[in-house]
Write a structure and sequence with these properties.
This protein has helices spanning 80-87, 121-128, 155-161, 182-196, 208-220; strands spanning 5-16, 19-26, 38-46, 52-58, 68-74, 93-100, 112-117, 140-146, 167-173, 201-207, 228-234. The chain is an alpha/beta fold and 251 residues long. The structure holds flavin-adenine dinucleotide (FAD).
C-alpha cells in the first residue's frame, strides 16, 4: 500500500468548458517527480462495492518546481474522480500517492515524436516541460490528436507551455473516441510525420485503443520498440484486472 501524501489546493481556474486547472502545494517537502509522471488522487468517495475512487492525474507543470505543481482535469460525464476534481475548493486538502509512471525522458539526444490523444496531452506537456526535454538536442514533433478546440485545454495553453527551439506543435482534428475511422486517421497522421523523418524516440499518451496499435506501427516503421514509451489514460488493453476503485496505468 503506497504511503498517502498531502497537498493543498492553492488555485483553481476553468480553462475550457470541461477543463479545470488546479494548482497544488505540498503540505510538506517536495513531490520529487520527473516530467511525464502522475499522481493517484484518493477522492475519498466510496464506490459501489465499498472501494474508494482513486484516479490518476498527470502533472502538467514543470519539474523545475517541486513544492507546487499543477493538474489539468477534464470532466468525464458523471464520473466520480473528474467531478471531484472539478468541485474541490481552494484551500482543500488532497490526499494522493505517487509520483508514479515510466513515461519519462531517457536522453536529450535523438529526434522525438510526442503523440498525445485527448486528455493524454497532460502527460505530454509534463514530459516536454521536464528537465530533459527543455533544451532538446534534436527535433521534437508534438502532435495533439483531439476532437475539437474546446475538448480540453485551449490549444494556445498547450502551445505556449512547450514553446522551444526545435519543438514543433500541431493539433490534428480527431474523430470522437470510439469512432470507426479514428484509428485509421491516427495512423495517417503518424504516417505523415514518418514521411518527413523517422523519430529515434516516440512517446504516446492517451487512448489505449490508439497508442498500442501506433506503437506497433512505429516499430514496423523502424523505430526501436525499446525507444517507444506509452501512457494509456483509458481503453488500456493491458490493464490486467479492472479494479473498481483505482485506475492504474501500465506505465
Ligand atoms: C496515468 C494516467 C494519467 C491520467 N491523467 C489525467 C489527466 O492529467 N487529466 C485528466 O483529465 N484525466 C487523466 N487521466 C484519466 C483519469 O484518471 C480518470 O480516468 C478520468 O478523470 C475519469 O475518471 P472519473 O472517475 O471521472 O470517471 P470514470 O467513471 O472512472 O470514467 C468513465 C470512463 O471514461 C474513461 N475515460 C477517462 N478519460 C477519458 C477520456 N479523456 N475520454 C474518454 N473516456 C475517458 C474511463 O477510463 C472510464 O472507462 C489519467 C489516467 C491515467 C491512467
Amino acid at each position: 500500500m503506497a504511503d498517502a501524501r498531502l497537498a493543498h489546493v492553492i488555485g483553481a481556474e476553468r480553462i475550457g468548458p470541461q477543463a479545470r486547472l488546479l494548482s497544488l502545494a505540498m503540505a510538506e517537502g517536495e513531490l520529487r517527480f520527473t516530467g511525464g509522471q502522475y499522481i493517484i488522487v484518493n477522492t475519498g468517495i466510496e464506490l459501489d462495492g465499498g472501494k474508494l475512487a482513486k484516479r490518476a492525474y498527470s502533472i502538467v507543470s514543470s519539474d523545475a518546481e517541486q513544492t507546487k505543481f499543477q493538474l489539468a482535469v477534464r470532466r468525464i460525464g458523471e464520473g466520480p474522480g473528474s467531478n471531484f476534481m472539478h468541485r474541490i475548493a481552494v484551500g482543500a486538502e488532497v490526499s494522493f500517492s505517487g509520483p508514479w509512471g515510466k513515461f519519462l525522458p531517457e536522453t536529450t539526444s535523438g529526434s522525438k515524436l510526442v503523440f498525445a490523444t485527448d486528455t493524454g496531452i497532460t502527460a505530454a506537456l509534463g514530459l516536454l516541460r521536464g528537465r530533459l526535454f527543455r533544451e532538446p538536442a534534436a527535433d521534437t514533433t508534438v502532435v495533439w490528436f483531439v476532437e475539437a478546440d474546446d475538448y480540453f485545454l485551449p490549444t494556445s495553453f498547450a502551445r505556449e507551455s512547450i514553446k522551444a527551439e526545435r519543438v514543433s506543435f500541431e493539433t490534428v482534428a480527431a474523430p470522437a473516441v470510439g469512432h470507426p475511422e479514428r484509428l485509421a486517421c491516427a495512423r495517417a497522421t503518424v504516417d505523415r510525420v514518418l514521411a518527413t523523418q523517422r523519430p529515434d524516440w516516440a512517446y504516446l499518451a492517451g487512448d489505449g485503443a490508439l497508442i498500442y496499435p501506433m506503437r506497433d506501427h512505429l516499430a514496423d516503421a523502424g523505430v526501436p520498440r525499446e525507444h517507444i514509451r506509452l501512457e494509456a489514460f483509458f481503453n488500456n488493453p493491458q490493464r490486467r484486472i479492472p479494479i473498481a476503485g483505482s485506475r492504474l496505468s501500465d506505465g
